[in-house]
User: Fold this.
Amino acid sequence: MEFPIKIKVYFIENIETGRIKVGFTSSSVNARMAQLQTGCDSKLRIIGVITSDKKRGTTEKQLHLLLSEWHYRGEWFTKDALPQIVRLIRLFKNNAK
Assistant:
């Protein structure tokens, strides 16, 4: 029996700049954040995590498109995206059932 790999989309904030990384991982989000923290001289924090699901519009790519107005560089978004990101996290966590 095969079990599908759960892909998680994470939202990690750079505390100093307020910029937010929207990325994905199939492993531990905490481990991914530790990897990112190693290369970053500012403290990072996890804002939230949701399950990636193409039908619900929650793949990393779909979320990047939703947040394109606040795109900074690569997978990073400006701090002005925070209210929208918090709304998305709440929406998709509440509708995860």
